[in-house]
Amino acid sequence: MDPAVTYYSSTNDASIRIESRKSSDPEEVYFELREKQMGDGWKIGMNDDHDLHIGWGTVGTANGAADAIKLTTTGGLEFYGAVEFRKEITQSYVSTSGLVCTAGQTVIGEPNGWSGYSSCPSGYSVVGLQGVYLHNSQDSARTKFQDIDHLECNANGCRAWCRADKCDVTARCCKTDHASLRCEDGEYQHQSKNQWGTPAYCGAGYVATGFASLDLHNNVYWKHQMINDFYCTDSYCQSWCWGSNCGVKPRCCKPRNYGQKLECVAGSQAYGDKDKWGPYSVCGVGYTAISHQRIDMLDHVHADEEIMHKYECNEQGCRAWCWGSACHTWAKCCRITVV
After folding, report:
1. What's the rounded Cα separation, in Å, for the pair 37 and 23?
2. CB-CB contact of 302 with 278 (8 Å)
3. Can you give the pLDDT at residue 144?
C-alpha cells in the first residue's frame, strides 16, 4: 500500500518536528501508533520530561503507557522487562563508576628545578597527581635532605620541584564514558605553618579532585620544613605544613554532560610502616580511585626526620611510601551519578 503522507526534499535534509512551547515545565510530546481503533497503542516520545520513552498503553495520553525502553539525556539506555541478546556481550570498560582513568606520560625532574609537565592523552582531563617519586628510596635518614618542595597540576598536566634529587612525576587523567571532564583550578589559599591551613574552595558545581598547587613557601632553611598532612574533601583542599608556611589550590572537576555529577567518598584507611610502600587504600564497588584524598604523617620521629617520599594512585587504589615515620593514606574514590 502506498503511504498516506510523504515528506521529501530533493536538495537537502528533511525533518518533522513535534513541539510543546510551554516554557514553565516539560509536557507530553509524542507519536502514537495504533490499529483498528484499538484502545491501546505504542507511544514514542517525551513524557513530561526530556527523556525518550517507548511504551504500550491507553491511547490519548503518554502517561497511560508503561515504559518498555527509555533513553536518557545523559546517554543512559534503560529496559523495563526481559531482555534477550542474540550475540555475545563484551564489556569494554574497566569500572562501573562511569569514569575511565589512566596515567599521563611520566617525566623525570632534575634536582632543584621544575620538571616538565606530565600531560594526559587526548580526550582525558587532568584531575590531579597520579604519582610523584623521589629517586633515592634508601635515604630514610634524610642525610641528603631530599624533599618534594612544590607540586602543580593544571590543563597542561602535572609537574614538581624536588630538592636535592631527581623525581618522577605522573599526572592522573580521567574522563567519563561520554566525554572528558570539565576541570579548572580553584582559589589559592595561604596555609600558616604548624596548623591546618585555610580551606581553598572550588566553584559551585565542581568537586575537588586533587591539588592544582601544593607549595612550600621556604620561610626557613628547607631541611626544616615538610608537608605533614594534606586533605581534599568534595569542595576544598587544605594542608598542615611543618616549619614553614605553604599554599594550596584545588583542582576542580565536573562532568560535561547535563544531568550528571561527580560523587566522591574516601577509600579505606591504609596504615603504612616507615621506609617502604604501604598497602593500598581501596575503593568500594562502583567507584574509581582518582587521587589521594589524604596522607597523614604520624610523627613517630621529629619532623626533621620524616617526609612523604613518594605516593601514587592507580586502578588498585592509592598508597604512599613515607620516610622516617609511618603514615595513613586514603584514596579519593569517585563515580558519575545522575542528578
Report:
1. 33
2. no
3. 47
